Amino acid sequence: MKYMFLRRASFLLAASIGILAACQPAEKEVDPVQAVHHYLQLQTDTLDQRFQQLQQRVEAHAPAAELQQSFEQARDRYKNIEPLIELYFPVFADAVNGPAIDEQEPHEGGKVNFATGFQVIEEYIYPVVDTSAQTELVKETRFLAGMIGRLRQLISNNQMTDQHIFQAMRLEVLRIMALGVSGFDSPVALRSLPESVEALQGIEHILNCFEQQVPATEVKANLARAYTFLQKDVSFNDFDRATFFADIMTPLSKSLYAYQQTLGIANRPLISAIDMSKDNFFEKDIFTADYFSNPDNRQPQPEAARLGKMLFFDPILSGNNKRSCASCHQPGRAFTDGRGKSLAFEGKGDVSRNAPTLINALYQRMLFYDLRTMFLEDQAADVMANATEMHGHIDEAVIKISKSEEYQVLFKKAYNKPVTNRTIQLALAAYIRSLSSMNSGFDRYMRGEKTAMPAEAVAGFNVFMGKAKCATCHFMPLFNGTVPALYMKSESEVLGVPAKPDTAHAQVDTDLGKFNTYHDDLNKNAFKTPTIRNAGLTGPYMHNGVYTSLEQVIDFYNRGGGAGIGIDLPNQTLPTDKLELTAQEQKNIIAFIHSLTDTTGLTTPPRHLPAFQDAALNARKVGGEY
Q1: Can you tell me the distance from the alpha carbon of 356 to that of 341, in angstroms, rounded to the nearest whole number?
Q2: Domains present along the chain, CATH in parentheses
Q3: Pairing with 464, which of 96, 177, 381, 618 sits 20 to 30 Å away (CA)?
Q4: What pTM does this model have?
Q5: Which helix (H) or strand (E) holds 526?
Q6: Strand runs (DSSP E) across 339-406, as ranges?
Q7: Phi, psi (5° rounding) for residue 19?
């Protein structure tokens, strides 16, 4: 489907309603923070008015055109204040404009959060009004009207700072790239591009509040270029996101940070997922490891990662002193093992799931395919204790490792403590967190090195971000399921993955995924959305390793996931529509995935492992055996 910008003049005019009085040059100087707060209140009042109009039309059974017009006017007003709402009230933002999928919260005792907000309403009225769901539509609009009324109260009691305001504007640039133009926010109405204009105009109106001090000339020029690019007469599928990101949004991000520096506004001191001292979102070290880390293992000494690396390659952690972490996570295979499912302990069958890459594994809120743990420290202990994986026990590992004088010295250097259960976990996690790599051809292309990606890969990126809808689950730039721009949660999906690759007689894999941990029907067959960085090296694919090639994976998605091969899962979260990708588009997507390959500096094993006085321990085999 295509959305042509036939009404761009009208939505630009509508965007100015209710804001002409806010953040405009004044005869006397006004505190910019107070001006932003005033702007937010005015826009929220306008949002409330627009939504009340939508609610009235819904309850009056108005024609589809009127419902859709009111819906668009209301969500455009929300987009104008989205930068501030997303930062100050993220839970509210998720309830108002989150995906139309019921979710279970692992952190809240398995509580189910039922989908609410604009995207739920969107599904009822686009592309045509679902008259059979009138009762549900009325209920949803009433609920959202109440939420918007609550927002007005939250805003009136909220204290703003210039640090927060600039962080909000800068993170909105990322959000537009990762969630806006990808279609994540407007999956049915397909208004992602005009809504991105509204979000950028929100940034501009906030900037106006600071211009009494210093004109934001360069930022305004970059915003104007962004408007022009977004308003081209082009369809959603044909929009050139690669050029938009590299040539428009990255300069905008840089100029916005430069303007912040000119004003002398410091970055917010609290830890965040994004390193706000960087001026764009494609720097090698843009993500903050400590944000994703256990609080007792932040900013580890370099000695900790070196110690963890030795432990990772040392089979001393296993029950038979022959199997190491590296047995299933081999550096030469981007820390996977090339098997559908790894061989189980001592070669007795297979483990239950495919071995995922550990590169960039730190950038997740939950771990394992079933998202059963939060931190890498806990994951390490789980794997060591698993009877089919390492079949060891961390307490026994402490006893064995303590027999090495060299290990004792290394633990002392890293933690100023002896070998303990906890320091083993901390060291392993410190090493895995060091396996960060954000310097692929794609990253360099986005920094301006246009020869870093071949034309086929650039075309594939545009399909990935647009027509193929891949980026609505694998969020750019991490390309995993951790949701930008605050990165507060990692998502899972129900895809309908088959047990075998035979599409003629497909049956869903018997592994129930998150259901085995959280015991809720919503989570049957749900699995974590993994990163596709380095996916060119990490086959076989899916949680069960059912597909041996990227071609098979793309074909599965192109058919509509499990539904497209005859698997009936009522809770499938992957859209069941066929993508209608051409053979060349599929080939281009694969070229793009290969452009995400980057294992530089991560694949060298330790030069040696510590020796033991115990001859039996010294006989262990480096790298492990099955």
Answers
A1: 10
A2: 22-270 (1.20.1420.20), 292-437 (1.10.760.10), 452-594 (1.10.760.10)
A3: 96
A4: 0.92
A5: strand 526-528
A6: none
A7: -120, -5
Q: How far apart are CA 496 and CA 567, in angstroms?
A: 7
- Is the pLDDT at 309 greater than 80? The verdict is yes
Rounded Cα distance, 276 and 171, in Å: 9
Q: Which two tokens stand for residue 566?
A: 């005859």
Q: Is pLDDT above 50 for 16?
A: no
For residue 494, the SS3 value is strand
Written as six digits, the tokens of 403 are 């027999």
Structure tokens at 299: 């900013």
174 contact partners, CB below 8 Å, separation of at least 6: 253, 274, 281, 484, 485
Q: What is the C-alpha separation between 194 and 54, in angstroms, rounded?
A: 19
d(CA 550, CA 589): 9
Token output for 524: 């049957």
The torsion angles phi and psi of 115, rounded to 5 degrees, stand at -60, 140
pLDDT tens readout for residues 20-64? 445 655 456 789 999 999 999 999 999 999 999 999 999 999 999
Dig out the tokens for 42 from the structure. Answer: 């005015």
Tokens, residue 536 = 């060119």
Other C-beta atoms closer than 10 Å to the C-beta of 560 total 17
Query: Between residues 360 and 607, which one has the greater pLDDT?
Result: 360
Give the DSSP H or E segment for 111.
strand 111-113
Structure tokens at 575: 């859209």
